[in-house]
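JOB MANIFEST
job_type = single_chain_structure
chain_count = 1
residues = 81
[input]
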Amino acid sequence: MSKDGKRVDPTRIIAQLNALHLGEMDGIQAKLASAREACLELEQQGLAEQLGEASAALGNADIKTYRRRVETVISQLGHLK
């Protein structure tokens, strides 16, 4: 269960990650952290690690790696639905 009491659902994580196009850096980092926690709840350690790498890449202004990691997670979550 997530913090709001709703069951963790890959579709919700995908929607959250797809909405990361604009916003302040702190907000984007918070959404990445939230998605990472949801992946851990789904027992998807590898996906959580990829989101951690995306967060680090964003912090280092490595946008190419950031986008690649997020897109990989979205793709892999699609297979969990």
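[summary]
The helical segments are 10-18, 25-41, 45-59, 63-78.
The two ends are 16 Å apart (CA to CA).
exit_status = 0
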